[in-house]
Specification:
The chain contains 4 helices and 7 strands. The protein is of the alpha+beta class. Strands 2-1-5-6-7-4-3 form a 7-stranded antiparallel β-sheet.
Length: about 210
């Protein structure tokens, strides 16, 4: 038995593509990002005017009201390196990993052909293509529905067939709330569970700072 058997393995951040029956695909980050940028924008019901921040009586009545959940954006940089997986054959380099991420923001060929066929049949309105529910997991306390809003790739090394073997990815995503999703959508349940976890953690955070 290894002397390191009792040391827990690091939890990897991941992106999970869901089907109605469960996960369709799990994309695990090869390396956890070193930093994570989060921005949170409260959805206030009332407005203010003027430099003093004073407004009408109606604004004052709405000052402590919220229209809904805060809008939250995440940004981070991820690394992919085929040379770190020496025991795994990689004839395509990191093309498969890149393609799996890119398909999070691309419709499938079948979906596009269906839309093209509908237009050819003279459909008055062709509905926008609906993508599957996507979850982002960052440890056990952060599991939330997301939509990718930014995805850029910096390919940094290639093999003899010009397959990329190392890349840096800039990924941005918006946390989807119950205000973003249709009533009864399963993503709403994931968001409520995520918010409930925040409430539990907030109850433990009675002191901030030193």
């Amino acid at each position: 038995m290894s002397m390191f058997a009792d040391i827990p393995k690091a939890i990897r951040a991941s992106i999970v593509v869901m089907d109605p029956g469960g996960p369709r695909r799990v994309i695990v980050m090869q390396f956890n990002p070193d930093s994570l940028e989060r921005s949170i924008q409260p959805q206030a019901a009332g407005g203010t005017s003027g430099a003093s921040g004073t407004g009408t009586d109606g604004d004052r009545n709405e000052a402590l009201r919220l229209k809904g959940p805060a809008e939250e954006q995440w940004k981070f940089t991820a690394e992919i390196d085929a040379t770190d997986q020496l025991d795994v054959a990689a004839p395509d380099g990191i093309h498969p990993q890149l393609a799996a991420l890119e398909m999070l923001v691309q419709p499938t060929v079948a979906q596009l052909r269906e839309s093209i066929d509908a237009a050819r049949r003279g459909a008055i309105e062709v509905n926008p293509i609906e993508m599957p529910l996507t979850l982002f997991t960052w440890g056990g306390k952060r599991i939330m529905p997301v939509r990718l809003t930014e995805f850029s790739v910096n390919e940094q090394a290639f093999d003899v067939d010009l397959n990329p073997i190392r890349a840096s990815l800039s990924i941005g995503m918006k946390i989807l709330t119950v205000s973003d999703l249709p009533a009864g959508h399963p993503g709403g349940d994931f968001y409520l569970a995520h918010l409930a976890m925040k409430e539990q953690l907030a109850a433990r955070g009675s002191r901030i700072g030193g």
